[in-house]
Amino acid sequence: MRRPKDWFDGLAMLPKHLLEKQYRDGHFAQTWSLNSQAAEIAGLGPFRLKQYVPGQRVVVERNPYYWKVDQKNQRLPYLDELVFLFVVPRTRK
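The structure corresponding to this sequence follows.
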């Protein structure tokens, strides 16, 4: 049986203040795109989008509002930032 504190892991909640108008207007699927600013995108996870540079990198930072803690009551995640680089393999000569 799952513990009550684990129930939120499976819930999909979206920010009404950012998405309600697009949903009601029938444009929900087009709300966030590759051209959206990082500050316009919201999420519930341990990290939030800090920067997206097309074809180069994605940077995520620790979400200060993330609710989970470890067994010692230390807030998660432990990392402050993650950088994902897009690497294109070199072609053979």
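The longest strand covers residues 47-53.
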